[in-house]
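Format notes (please read before filing issues)

Several people have asked whether sequences and structure tokens are stored in separate files. They are not. Every record keeps both together, in the order shown below: the sequence lines, then the token lines. Line labels are part of the format and must not be stripped during preprocessing.
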Amino acid sequence: RCRFTHPLMLGSGVHTTGIPHPAIVPHSGKQEMEHYERNMKPQPEPKREKEAKKPTIKKPLNAFMLYMKEMRAKVIAECTLKESAAINQILGRRWHALSREEQAKYYELARKERQLHMQLYPGWSARDNY
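Then the structure lines:
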């Protein structure tokens, strides 16, 4: 049995706070530690009454997102892939393979979408969602 006692330790290897010190736990302290660890698990917070949430206003889509939205179904049909990550990789490669002129179509759509978003939600900031 360990005889070391720290000035802040009680005789049985327990700190004055009542918490057993992990390095100074008596042999019979295993059960005490299990009890201690069980009690230290975070308790779920009581459910709050449902707060009326403001509707979330999403950011306008950028050129690449508009391209993905348009082309996703085509890629899925061609590749028979179901994994979103693999589909996104293919779409990314195809986006980079497009010429500037082909990409310009989507940049113009994105510009129009931003303008419409600014008209619908003046003073909106992406920070509003966070």
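For reference, the curators noted about this record: The two ends are 54 Å apart (CA to CA). The CA atoms of residues 1 and 52 lie 59 Å apart.
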